[in-house]
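ok new one. same drill as before - structure tokens go in, u give me an amino acid for every spot. 386 of them this time. try not to just spam alanines like last time pls lmao
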């Protein structure tokens, strides 16, 4: 019989829902030694909304004070689904209480904060994970497998687009519970921390460490009404960011992200070009991975030219990552399943003693790259990653 793994979630917004759903589903599809129990949820919301959320998602209880949640003896795991500015305090408290911790991305407001958080969880010896869920899209995990199998060979280029359009209108306010991502005090940065953090994590997972960057950011609408104060205030987050990168393996990277790409909702793509082949992925068509094979990894010889070309792999077969846990070939899965995979891998890591990735130390690495991007955009110069 599976051992109960009692979970307390802080936050009941978009991420609070995705994480709650993952904890509820994971034991139905993955055979694990631990079974998550939604013990309590906590959020800065009216009590009636908090109770309704707890009832909807099957939490046994709720708390209005996160400190009480962290201190509860019947909770093993704290899952942080709150705005970026709150992460550090919550992580430090959870680690001090001996709780394992999952934290939404980006890990912190800065690398300095992330260093404290890494030190806290490592000192406490508790399991920890940053929720970069796009690693767990089966097609993205398959991309990592193809890289590991030598099917790309020596890498030359890595390019990213992460485009959205939801903040274009000048009458969109900033701040408050719904638009905190536009408030520098709460978010820390704009598309750099919100979108490019995902892209950076994926890039380093597939192509190794980024060594240096040079960046340019832009804020298109300079002032917005703040929902908390009712006053028009300067907008200090980046609406768009583009940067060049040099990877430690000698390959070059180009990254572009914006919330001002009309018609793009969550257009998150990457392409990796190597000596032996190439890969391309688009999150808006997530069941596919495009692969170009030039050299046969088994022989090192060029594939016959009359059969070369881009191959579209429909990532739904049982031999593909995660897919044997779901449906029959041809039946696709979606966004919510990436969080189920995350929780499954995390619990498996606890059970085997081999921690799931990306842990907080890996999240710190991503934060250092984000900090370097912001510093480069301010100076106009190349910045090395520590």
């Amino acid at each position: 019989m599976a051992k109960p793994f009692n979970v307390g979630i802080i936050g009941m917004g978009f991420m609070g829902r995705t994480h709650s759903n993952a904890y509820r589903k994971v034991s139905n599809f993955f055979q694990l030694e631990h079974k998550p129990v939604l013990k309590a949820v906590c959020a800065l919301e009216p009590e009636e909304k908090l109770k309704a959320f707890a009832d909807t998602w099957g939490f046994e209880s709720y708390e209005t004070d996160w400190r009480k949640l962290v201190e509860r003896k019947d909770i093993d795991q704290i899952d942080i689904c709150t705005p970026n500015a709150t992460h550090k305090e919550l992580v430090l408290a959870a680690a001090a209480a001996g709780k394992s911790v999952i934290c939404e991305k980006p890990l912190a407001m800065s690398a300095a904060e992330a260093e404290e958080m890494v030190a806290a969880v490592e000192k406490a010896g508790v399991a920890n994970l940053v929720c970069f869920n796009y690693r767990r899209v089966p097609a993205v995990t398959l991309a990592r497998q193809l890289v590991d199998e030598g099917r790309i060979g020596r890498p030359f280029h890595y390019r990213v687009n992460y485009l959205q359009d939801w903040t274009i209108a000048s009458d969109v306010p900033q701040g408050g519970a719904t638009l905190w991502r536009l408030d520098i005090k709460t978010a820390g940065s704009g598309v750099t921390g919100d979108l490019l953090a995902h892209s950076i994590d994926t890039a380093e997972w597939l192509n190794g460490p980024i060594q240096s960057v040079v960046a340019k950011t832009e804020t298109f609408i300079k002032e917005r009404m703040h929902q908390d104060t009712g006053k028009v205030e300067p907008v200090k987050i980046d609406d768009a960011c583009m940067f060049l990168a040099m990877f430690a393996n000698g390959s070059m990277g180009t990254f572009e992200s914006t919330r001002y790409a009309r018609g793009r909702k969550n257009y998150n793509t990457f392409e990796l070009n190597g000596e032996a082949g190439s890969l391309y992925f688009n999150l808006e068509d997530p069941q596919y991975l495009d692969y170009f094979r030039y050299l046969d990894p088994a022989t090192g010889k060029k594939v016959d030219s009359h059969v070369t070309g881009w191959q579209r792999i429909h990532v739904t077969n049982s031999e593909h990552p995660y897919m044997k846990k779901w449906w029959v070939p041809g039946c696709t899965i979606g966004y919510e399943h990436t969080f189920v995979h995350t929780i499954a891998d995390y619990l498996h890591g606890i059970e085997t003693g081999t921690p799931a990735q990306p842990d907080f130390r890996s999240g710190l690495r991503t934060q250092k790259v984000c900090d370097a991007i912001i510093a480069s955009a301010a100076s106009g110069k190349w910045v090395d990653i520590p």
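The CA atoms of residues 128 and 314 lie 32 Å apart. and btw The chain has a mean pLDDT of 97.
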